[in-house]
Amino acid sequence: MTGRIRIGIVGGGLAGITVAIALSKHRHVDVHVYESSPQFTERGAGIGISPLALEALDDIIPSAIDLLKTSAGAVEADAARLVIGSGPEAGALVADLGQSAGLTMNRAPLLQTLLSLLPKEMLHAGKRLKSLGQIDSGVRVTFEDGTNEHFDAVIGADGIFSSVRDHVLGGKEHAASPAGWWDCRHLVPFEKAREALGEESFKVDRQYAWLGDGAAMLHGLVENKTMVQCIIAVIDKSFSADRKREVTRNSLNDALPASWYEGSVAKGMVDLILDQEDPKGYAQWEHKFTPTYANNRVCIVGDAAHATSPWQGAGAGISIEDAFIIGHLFSNISTAAEIEPAFKAFDALRRPRCQQVVDNGRRTGRLFCGQDETAGVNAEKLSRELGLMFGPLGALDLKLHKEDALSIMQEFLNN
């Protein structure tokens, strides 16, 4: 087929692969994904996908929910149960978030499941970006192995420290910065977690989040309910730029206020986190502000565009929303000349939505860790304030969002 629009995606994580799947549905689009690592892999904690994000994913991949359950070990979970974890109100219920079930799973099997939907000839590992430059006929990409490619457009999905982002924004003025927390994580067998945390911590089939002074603790079932993802997150008062740090019992005890040990969960969570060969803590980073997601025929998506702290579990979901919109925009264009209006529409539509998620995520972290003056560590006040933070996350009407994207693009095309 001649006259196809050739798209290069830089970055082969969740965002890049989901965008590739959305674009590969259109015969007039020739898409290729370039990953800097020798293999397409995902690292990190379990991941949650909200009902709204699943709706978007099901539009991209028919029967996506069944696929993730059978191939990625996804577990159905009704969002999160929020409980006070420290101080005099320890054990008090704050809220049960979510009225319909989302899915939780590990990142690695999720990515492998998505990769299986793409032809191998679309996927290029071991291709680290060296430079890209926009020319009259599109975008020229140079990789560190000395090879070059020419595309009609490039989509950057190369993560929080994105090189494509630097190109789109013309420098590092709006680079990622520390969000103000660090966390440590461990995946443990269900029986071990239940023994350490007690039956009460698995009373309902939800992720549990324990809120308190200066820290928060989370645990949730993954891998067909055989494993439990455990997370301790604490305030990083230094806002250190170090991305990784050693974690010991002493460092956790120093980071956790004594009030945590008045509750039922802290000792067990600390024991579980330390029950690994080399426990590490990782700083949380975010993009506090991004002035644009598009520069002519280069666009950024996912963490490259709107990295957010993990407090609302929304990073994966808004990346899937990005792919949903990109897919529908490209289904309504047929020539390379229409790419720039499509990217402008993507920016105009998605940036306000994602900026709200970034901002609300930051305040949610302060609420979880008892640092918000409005709520402190009071269950009733936290319930009210967190409702305001989580409400907009699931309130998006995807059908209307898609229609708005196409309408905005048409305005740019007309002008």
From TrEMBL:
Gene3D superfamilies: FAD/NAD(P)-binding domain. The keyword Nuclease does not apply. One of its GO terms (molecular function) is FAD binding. Residues 7-360 form the FAD-binding domain. Keywords: FAD, Flavoprotein, Oxidoreductase. Pfam families: FAD_binding_3. It comes from the Eukaryota. GO terms for biological process: secondary metabolite biosynthetic process. Pathway: Secondary metabolite biosynthesis. Belongs to the paxM FAD-dependent monooxygenase family. This is FAD-binding domain-containing protein. The lineage of its organism: Eukaryota, Fungi, Dikarya, Ascomycota, Pezizomycotina.
